Amino acid sequence: MKRVYDFLKKCGTYYLATIDGDQARVRPFGTIDLFEGHLYIQTGKVKPVSQQMQANPKIELCAFDGQQWLRLSATAVRDENIEAKKHMLEQYPELKAMYDAEDENTEVLYLKDAMATFSSFTAEPVCIEF
Q: Max alpha carbon distance in the chain (Å)?
């Protein structure tokens, strides 16, 4: 899990895919956090991405650092733990202008049943499950 976290932090931006009815939706994301043994992402509950993950929590994300790429599939689980929200916002203080750990909008989700695959053109794929 730490390797996935480090890679996503290094990339800065990754692309998160959800399902909206029968249509795939992909958008750039940038929040990633390790907290109490889980890998977390963050969004706002009012956003369509949040509603899509609540309707169908199976997500995929993809990131590329110029040499290798990561594809990760997982189940996104909403966590209402205020400490998890605070930890995320401490990692991304620029978000504090839009989010507060105790508001009704801030949402953190941890990834469970994750399968991460690191690939490149020069090495065999490496798979990590967590």
A: 46
Distance CA 35, CA 82 (A): 12
- If you search the block for the tokens 């989010």, which residue do you land on? 99
pLDDT digits (tens, 9 = 90+) for 50-77: 999 999 999 999 999 999 999 999 999 9
125's tokens: 């794929």
Q: What is the pLDDT of residues 24-39, one digit of tens each?
A: 999 999 999 999 999 9
As a whole number of angstroms, the distance between CA 30 and CA 56 comes to 21
Beta strand residue intervals within the chain, DSSP E = 14-20, 23-29, 33-35, 38-44, 58-64, 68-79, 106-120, 126-129
> Which structure tokens are listed for 111?
């990834």
- Do the Cβ atoms of 63 and 11 come closer than 8 Å? yes
Domains of the chain: 2-129 (2.30.110.10)
CA 73 to chain centre: 10
Query: Length of the chain, please?
Result: 130
- Supply the pTM of this predicted model: 0.95
